[in-house]
Amino acid sequence: MIVKNLDDVIGTEDHVKGETWESRRIILKDAGMGFSVHDTIIYKGTESMFWYKYHQEAVYCVEGEGEIEDLTTGKIHPIRPGTMYALVGHEKHLLRATKSDMRMVCVFNPPCTGKETHDEEGAYALPKEEANL
């Protein structure tokens, strides 16, 4: 059994900050769960581009308001508490926190190791063990 509190992550190496967001990585690959769980804040008034080419992601908004734009279709969806979206097709997207910071719970498959950084396309690199197949 794994029991963690957000306080166990804040201020550690698993609390990663970008220019427009911060991610508190609660469950990572080393937990052996087959997925990772992140508590992420998207800062108010910002736009963040993400494109998880090698990961599927499901996101549930617990606080704040904003929108997600699918850059493939141009479709924009509002986000508010209770909204979930899943990137089943590795969609390149923009997240905008419009009225306030957005707090999102994100689940990734394959699980993140915690060492990933977004590249210029907003993507994480292919996990090393996957690249060697």
State the main characteristics.
single chain; mainly beta; Jelly Rolls
Uncertain spans = none
- Structure annotation, total helices: 1
Structural class, by secondary structure, is: mainly beta
Radius of gyration based on Cα positions = 14 Å
Beta-strand residue percentage: 35-45%
CATH superfamily: Jelly Rolls
Any idea of the CATH topology? Jelly Rolls
Shape: globular
Question: Could you name the CATH class?
Answer: Mainly Beta
Tell me the count of domains: 1
First-residue to last-residue Cα separation: 31 Å
Biggest sheet record: 6 strands, antiparallel
Order of strands in the sheet with most strands: 1-2-3-10-5-8
**Residues in helix, %:** under 10%
What is the CATH architecture term? Sandwich
Mean pLDDT: 90
Sketch the topology as an H/E string, one letter per element: EEEEEEEEEEH
β-strand number: 10
Catalytic activity: (2S)-4-acetamido-2-aminobutanoate = L-ectoine + H2O
GO molecular function: ectoine synthase activity
Family: Belongs to the ectoine synthase family.
Keywords: Lyase
